């Protein structure tokens, strides 16, 4: 497979099924095993029920079992082997196939890493497959376990996309809160070097923006020419999800630009502070130059040192050094005045 196996999620069955649910009209989802799902799909469609199967692609037997037992088009497996993880959604053989990039969910650790989810949604089947745990899928599974009712497999897919938008909106809000805190401290002249934090935040947001930006375009292309088997209410739900996700991406782009401007202002302020410090050190060096020169000359152990026997020689030298120091300071500060 082209997907890199980086983590192994415990709890999957012998074919890599992490969770499975069967949905009957007007009822909440009930857990179902992999073989029970195969038996359900092989039966004639006597009702409007469907199943949702969520798989772990890191399991060695997962793809082989999907090819052998699930009625999935070849385009779905072609997407698994495609090197690009660019977001897209397209119809194929009466199903909706999607590649969705979402935020990864660590084991008890909040992360902003982006991972990929492969989706196939038909009239009686929704298959989702991933390598790393995802936040939006975890939210969807929690909604199903809480008893939320879904009328169709595609409505479950659109709810997943809505959860994806909600997760992204939460990340944007949390990042904006951190940027607000840094900006408030900057305006209050409490300068700290937040450049590393801002750089890491901006790098993460730009990566998310790059991976997620194609999604609204792919959804709008599907909405412009929806397949005939896609119901009107499904099209409307997909349009609402697309519009909300577009707003989130706009907020993300605005936040990236705001972080960039804050980085530039912070760098300029720190450079100004550094220049003032260097100027102060330069002034100290310039003002100390006359006394160092005079002390060097009068500290030579040679004959003929002037004023050696003069009764007021010390005060004459003090006046001489003070005069040179005053002239050096006047010359240095006068060059700093705007011309």
UniProtKB/TrEMBL annotation:
<keyword id="KW-1003">Cell membrane</keyword>
<keyword id="KW-1133">Transmembrane helix</keyword>
<dbReference type="InterPro" id="IPR045863">
    <property type="entry name" value="CorA_TM1_TM2"/>
</dbReference>
<dbReference type="GO" id="GO:0050897">
    <property type="term" value="F:cobalt ion binding"/>
</dbReference>
<feature type="transmembrane region" description="Helical">
    <location>
        <begin position="312"/>
        <end position="333"/>
    </location>
</feature>
<keyword id="KW-0997">Cell inner membrane</keyword>
<dbReference type="GO" id="GO:0015095">
    <property type="term" value="F:magnesium ion transmembrane transporter activity"/>
</dbReference>
<keyword id="KW-0406">Ion transport</keyword>
<protein>
    <submittedName>
        <fullName>Zinc transporter</fullName>
    </submittedName>
</protein>
<dbReference type="InterPro" id="IPR002523">
    <property type="entry name" value="MgTranspt_CorA/ZnTranspt_ZntB"/>
</dbReference>
<feature type="transmembrane region" description="Helical">
    <location>
        <begin position="278"/>
        <end position="300"/>
    </location>
</feature>
<dbReference type="GO" id="GO:0015087">
    <property type="term" value="F:cobalt ion transmembrane transporter activity"/>
</dbReference>
<dbReference type="GO" id="GO:0005886">
    <property type="term" value="C:plasma membrane"/>
</dbReference>
<comment type="similarity">
    <text>Belongs to the CorA metal ion transporter (MIT) (TC 1.A.35) family.</text>
</comment>
<keyword id="KW-0812">Transmembrane</keyword>
<keyword id="KW-0862">Zinc</keyword>
<keyword id="KW-0472">Membrane</keyword>
<dbReference type="InterPro" id="IPR045861">
    <property type="entry name" value="CorA_cytoplasmic_dom"/>
</dbReference>
<dbReference type="Pfam" id="PF01544">
    <property type="entry name" value="CorA"/>
</dbReference>
<keyword id="KW-0813">Transport</keyword>
<dbReference type="GO" id="GO:0000287">
    <property type="term" value="F:magnesium ion binding"/>
</dbReference>
């Amino acid at each position: 497979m082209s997907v890199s196996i980086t983590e192994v999620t415990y709890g999957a069955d012998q074919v890599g099924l992490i969770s499975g649910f069967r949905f009957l009209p007007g009822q909440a989802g009930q857990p179902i095993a992999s073989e029970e799902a195969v038996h359900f799909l092989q039966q004639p469609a006597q009702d409007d029920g469907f199943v949702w199967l969520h798989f772990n692609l890191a399991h060695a037997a997962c793809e082989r079992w999907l090819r052998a037992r699930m009625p999935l088009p070849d385009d779905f497996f072609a997407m698994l082997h495609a090197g690009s993880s660019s977001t897209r959604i397209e119809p194929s053989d009466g199903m909706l196939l999607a590649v969705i990039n979402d935020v990864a969910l660590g084991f008890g650790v909040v992360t902003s890493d982006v991972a990929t989810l492969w989706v196939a949604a038909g009239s009686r089947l929704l298959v989702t497959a991933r390598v790393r745990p995802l936040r939006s899928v975890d939210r969807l599974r929690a909604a199903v376990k809480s008893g939320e009712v879904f009328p169709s497999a595609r409505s479950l897919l659109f709810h997943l996309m809505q959860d994806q938008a909600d997760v992204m909106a939460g990340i944007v809000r949390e990042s904006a809160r951190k940027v607000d805190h840094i900006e408030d401290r900057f305006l209050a002249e409490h300068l700290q070097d937040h450049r590393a934090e801002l750089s890491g935040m901006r790098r993460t947001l730009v990566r998310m923006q790059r991976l997620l930006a194609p999604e609204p375009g792919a959804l709008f292309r599907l909405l412009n020419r929806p397949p005939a088997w896609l119901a009107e209410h499904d099209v409307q739900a997909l349009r609402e999800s697309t519009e909300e996700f577009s707003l989130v991406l706009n907020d993300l782009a605005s936040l990236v630009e705001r972080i960039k401007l804050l980085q530039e202002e912070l760098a300029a302020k720190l450079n100004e502070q550094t220049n003032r410090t260097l100027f102060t050190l330069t002034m100290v060096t310039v003002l100390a130059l006359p006394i160092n020169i005079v002390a060097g000359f009068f500290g030579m152990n040679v004959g003929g040192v002037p004023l050696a026997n003069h009764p007021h020689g010390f005060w004459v030298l003090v006046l001489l050094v003070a005069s040179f120091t005053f002239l050096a300071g006047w010359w240095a500060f006068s060059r700093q005045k705007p011309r």
